Amino acid sequence: MRIGELARRTGTTARALRHYEAAGLISSARAANGYRVYEETAVVRVANIRHLLAAGLTLEDVAAFEPCLDGDVPAAAPSPRGLAIARERLAVLEARIAAQTAARDRLAAALSAHPAPNDPSGPDAPGNPGNPSDASGASEASEPSGGPAVSSGP
Which helix (H) or strand (E) holds 30? Predict the structure, then answer.
């Protein structure tokens, strides 16, 4: 089958398939016209590659699973090497998440002292009694004269 058909059947792109091929994870023959031609077994192989990538592994990690990519990877018992790779990748992901969480917390702390002008909870929010430029909301509702409040805004 040609690359477009393989891409359609596996839910990926031709570009991704060329990337997998460059990484040595799949292979193709060339037709007389130069087009890539894949065997039917490539469908299972690409599905397994995508399964492992979706689990958080890198293409380099997936290469270690190359001997079993033609089987039922999701149902197979993991090998000791596969488990080691998965644990290493999990540690990397957890470290990245911790670093991103710390960066988010620092940014949120820095911004908390300076709410955005349109922040509904900030001191400049419409209806906030502490907002001197607000001509709506709480200040209109508490007109002592009992007459209609006149707004200076639109």
Answer: strand 29-30
For every residue of 56-96, DSSP letters joined together read: T--HHHHHTTGGGTTS-TTTSPPPHHHHHHHHHHHHHHHHH
Partners of residue 30 on adjacent β-strands: 36
Q: pLDDT tens digit string along 58-112?
A: 999 999 888 889 888 888 888 888 889 999 999 999 999 999 999 999 999 999 9
What is the Cα–Cα distance from 124 to 16, expressed in whole angstroms?
49
For Cα atoms 82, 85, 90, give the angle at the middle one, nearest 5 degrees.
125
Question: Who's near 58: CB < 8 A, 6+ residues apart?
Answer: 89
Is 10 within 8 Å of 45 (Cβ atoms)? no
Instruction: Kindly state the average pLDDT of the residues 149-153.
Output: 47
Q: Which residues contact 19 (CB under 8 A, 6 or more apart)?
A: 59
- Decide if pLDDT at 55 tops 70: yes
From CA 85, how far away is CA 61, in angstroms rounded? Answer: 7
**CA 107 vs CA 6, 94, 96, 103, 119: distances in Å:** 44, 20, 16, 6, 16
